[in-house]
Amino acid sequence: MVKIEKNFFNIKNLIPKNIKLLIVSKKQNTYSIKKLYKIGQKDFGENYIQDIVKKYHNLPKDIRWHMIGNIQSNKLKYIIPFIHLIHSVQKLKHIKIINKIGLKYNKIVKCLLQIRISNELNKSGIFYEKHEKIDFLLDFSKKMNNIKILGLMGIASFKEMKIVENEFSCLNNLYNKYKIKYNFNILSMGMSRDFSSAIKYNTNMIRLGSSIFGKKNKIL
User: Fold this and answer.
1) Residue 177 in 3-state DSSP?
2) Residues near 171 by beta carbon (within 8 Å), at least 6 away in sequence
3) Residue 88 and residue 114: Cα distance in Å, rounded?
4) What is the C-alpha separation between 78 and 104, in angstroms, rounded?
């Protein structure tokens, strides 16, 4: 058994069965993705729309593709027909565009709001403290027929675990605040470095790349 498959099964043995494992396949070739697909993995995440489109056309059609990178509004139309979940909604503009394209394809597009729980400059999302903005976006989306916000996503700091766990705790509290009113069922937090801590704070979807593929990414 090669390393990718071994890493996959090791991770699967570590996480509770109620947690969805999303494999971050950015920069990975189709051969590596097929290895995981053949042993039962169906959920893969990409950062760039052009990569999702390319891989969608070259891989089995029952793969569930997740858009986890910053939204490229002018390119959304290329993935809406087949995308499973968009993780990175953070603006009213995103909601309007996704709903409009969803209407065109007669599809309800499933999404998450990306919440900024870290103060690091390279992180994006709606600031955790801005509850009024979060309320507004969620209320607005409920009026739309072709977009459905299913929960929250957040990326923790690349710092000591005490800080990371505090950020996960904040996102978990926010999720609990909204989950009943908006019928949430996805709390997406935890990556290769910190997924064990995310599990402590009730994540039900983790996004893993380097812990599966290794530190060196392959080129498309």
Assistant:
1) helix
2) 115, 117, 128, 152, 154, 187, 189, 201
3) 5
4) 12
Which CB contacts under 8 angstroms, 24+ apart, belong to 197-201?
A: 197/156, 197/161, 197/164, 197/165, 197/168, 198/156, 198/168, 199/15, 199/16, 199/19, 200/165, 200/168, 201/165, 201/168, 201/169, 201/171, 201/172
119 CB-near residues (< 8 Å, 6+ apart): 157
Q: What is the DSSP letter of 81?
A: T
Domains and CATH numbers, the chain: 3-213 (3.20.20.10)
Residue matched to tokens 């760039």: 48
Burial group, residue 53, by CB count within 10 angstroms (0-12, 13-18, 19+): middle
> Which pair of tokens denotes residue 131?
């509850």
Question: Among residues 214, 211, 76, which one has the least CA distance to residue 147?
Answer: 76
Q: Left if phi > 0, otherwise alpha if psi is -120 to 50, otherwise beta: which for 106?
A: left
What are 167-215's pLDDT values in tens digits? 999 999 999 999 999 999 999 999 999 999 999 999 999 999 999 998 7
Q: What angle do CA 166, 167, 170 make, to 5 degrees?
A: 90
Q: Which residues pair with 126 in a beta bridge?
A: 115
Instruction: Convert the pLDDT of each residue in 94-106 to its tens digit.
Output: 999 999 999 999 9
pTM above 0.90, yes or no: yes
